[in-house]
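User: Can you write out an input/output pair for a complex, sequences first and structure second?

Assistant: Here is one pair. Inputs:
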Amino acid sequence: MSKPTPISGFPEWTPSQRMIEQYVLDRIRNTFELYGFAPLETRAVEPLDQLLRKGETSKEVYVIRRLHDDEQGPAGDDALGLHFDLTVPFARYVLENAGKLQFPFRRYQIQKVWRGERPQEGRYREFVQADIDIVDRDNLGAHHEAEMPLVIGDALRSLPIPEVRIQVNNRKICEGFYRGIGLTDPEAALRAVDKLDKIGPAKVAELLAQTAGASEAQAKACLALAEISAPDASFADAVRALGVSDPMLDEGIEELVRVVETAAEHSPGLCVADLRIARGLDYYTGTVYETQLRGYERYGSICSGGRYDNLASSGAVRFPGVGISIGVTRLLGLLFGTDALSISRDVPACVVVAVTSEEQRAASNRVADALRRRGIPAEVSPSAAKFGKQIRYAERRRIPYVWFPGAEGAGDEVKDIRSGDQVAATADTWTPPAADLKPLVS
Amino acid sequence: MSKPTPISGFPEWTPSQRMIEQYVLDRIRNTFELYGFAPLETRAVEPLDQLLRKGETSKEVYVIRRLHDDEQGPAGDDALGLHFDLTVPFARYVLENAGKLQFPFRRYQIQKVWRGERPQEGRYREFVQADIDIVDRDNLGAHHEAEMPLVIGDALRSLPIPEVRIQVNNRKICEGFYRGIGLTDPEAALRAVDKLDKIGPAKVAELLAQTAGASEAQAKACLALAEISAPDASFADAVRALGVSDPMLDEGIEELVRVVETAAEHSPGLCVADLRIARGLDYYTGTVYETQLRGYERYGSICSGGRYDNLASSGAVRFPGVGISIGVTRLLGLLFGTDALSISRDVPACVVVAVTSEEQRAASNRVADALRRRGIPAEVSPSAAKFGKQIRYAERRRIPYVWFPGAEGAGDEVKDIRSGDQVAATADTWTPPAADLKPLVS
């Protein structure tokens, strides 16, 4: 077998990196559960027609088929594709199980998703997302839109990563404003303004004229709105100073004030109202969120979402929702790329129990057992080589302690191989310092 | 959108079941880490030619392709398929990263795998496996084969499930014995004996004659070997009483004695030497494991594996390994099917903080925040409805406590809605009984 090579866009972390990823996922999950979100995991596949409901992402879908299933066309009615996000499967799950769920339904979901996009830095074809959503039947209280940044702020601030800033906007502000200045295709205007960071104001003005039929004055007004940014409710005064009046605009301002003020009380500096944030996806209808990681702004948002009123509906029943998604793989990929995260050892073990001779392996097993029963991760040395070699086994993995079972009559000893200190110990009572028990992420 | 329906073979647990699954996975992972196994996660896809190296499973492979990737034939050289187990990807990972890994390399891996088999009870097309493996370069100590059942025994016995019994055998015993009685195709004999449980001894004898060229006496000897079963080293006497002599047979007996005796010291009753266990896969070369769950024996093994010497090799370098895999989805599917597992509530929240009026929501947020900061999962009521309705919100989710923020001047109170007891409390000090903090699985 020749040496295999990586597949572009399908990242694989080293075991040490995977330990860091697990630490990050555990922290995120813990925060989600502290806020009462229940876990959900959906299957990796969805019917292709479900996945293609949102036209613009269809090119990214991976279709699956059984290798020898010749009779089944790959794009037939019953064709399956890998999900490309966790929102579409969640909306499907809610519709499928609405009769069994309690509403409002708060769930989190941490899973891999797949997109056949061109791989580039911070973009993958297989990656992990960590989502929270709240859906209700018929109506969803707007206060849930203010709750999302609290959860995400707590989750991300529990991690050893740079500061984050959540940028919030409200689709109703944009749509109401565009209507208020007389534009008839607010969706087109939204898509044009969404490109502001990429192509700059002059090109956006052109695009507004071309695709949304905006006059020069209208384009200028759209750009003026997009330039408004404030860490508090003062954004509302800036919007009103533009002199546009529309009921949907007022509703959007009121909702966004609530989001910003709730966040300011909970976590000062976490949220900023940034009226250029639009989110490309058509299905958002209220608050939208993006998140920048300080020092990595050029790679785009690491955590995004928004309110959607029309993603799931069945006959006359609607299930409006609000959700947000942390791009865990993207976040870790950026931080691993700059060596911004490290871990104190390469394996979970805190102790290597040395083996005096193969005949004495059972004695070493008993020591390891006694340690494990008290929650101390321990390996037994793979060989009864000279102790120097067994110590190097621990050193190469940065395992801090080596345990030496005593010869007959003599007691056991344990050595801290970093300091060289070696002390008498018994496996039923010895406890490492708390900082040594588990690998430390920093 | 019409109501979606489930896809056969792709199970989805309810949020309550998912909480149980997470509890099970956390326990398994904790045991794996106590034994010093490092975590690894590999991508979901492998090159198709890698997946097809083991001929007999090719029919089960799912191929993936990008929907609009017309130029790429689905079965071309660079075609990708979803992995159907975690052993093949692990062997590939070891070869790809051998220069960066420390050997022996102990890793665990808990991931979904996919097989396009016909779905039936206890069999799925998408399911979770929890694997441990130890690989070394060139040589792997036989004592690692004795370590596997200790880990699995601890992992499975930490779960609220029926008793398990690990059945062990050693390929060298079978192969050495078959050679010792003069059979020239021990692989064929192994495959025939592997069908013993399914087709019975008479049919196995026929098959031995047809496919392995066995005489009546040889077939009888093979069946006599397969009938041997003992919870201790006495199986070795029973084998020797059959009067067959072969060096490989002796080696296998010695190794299996070690496995059984190590297990007996660690966990009496956990392991039994059962010489009919063969495992279908060709790549095993030493100890093999299967695991029965008491009361669910007819559904087959829930945890299997073995030693493999030739799965990963690159030029002159070999990486022999031993591994075992818990079929988590199969295990849970069986237990969910008989309602053998339950959980004390349907969401993680321990407390619902009531909302007196929408204007007072910020006060309720502050209470919830104070509770969360001390690790107590808390939701804020989604509406400021009458308190009776807010209590029913908690009841329907079996959340044990409802918190009532005091009106101005008055203190807060918390109600245990199971007993009806309501007491004065402050969010900075109140603590629920330990048994109420997290959902309890039983």
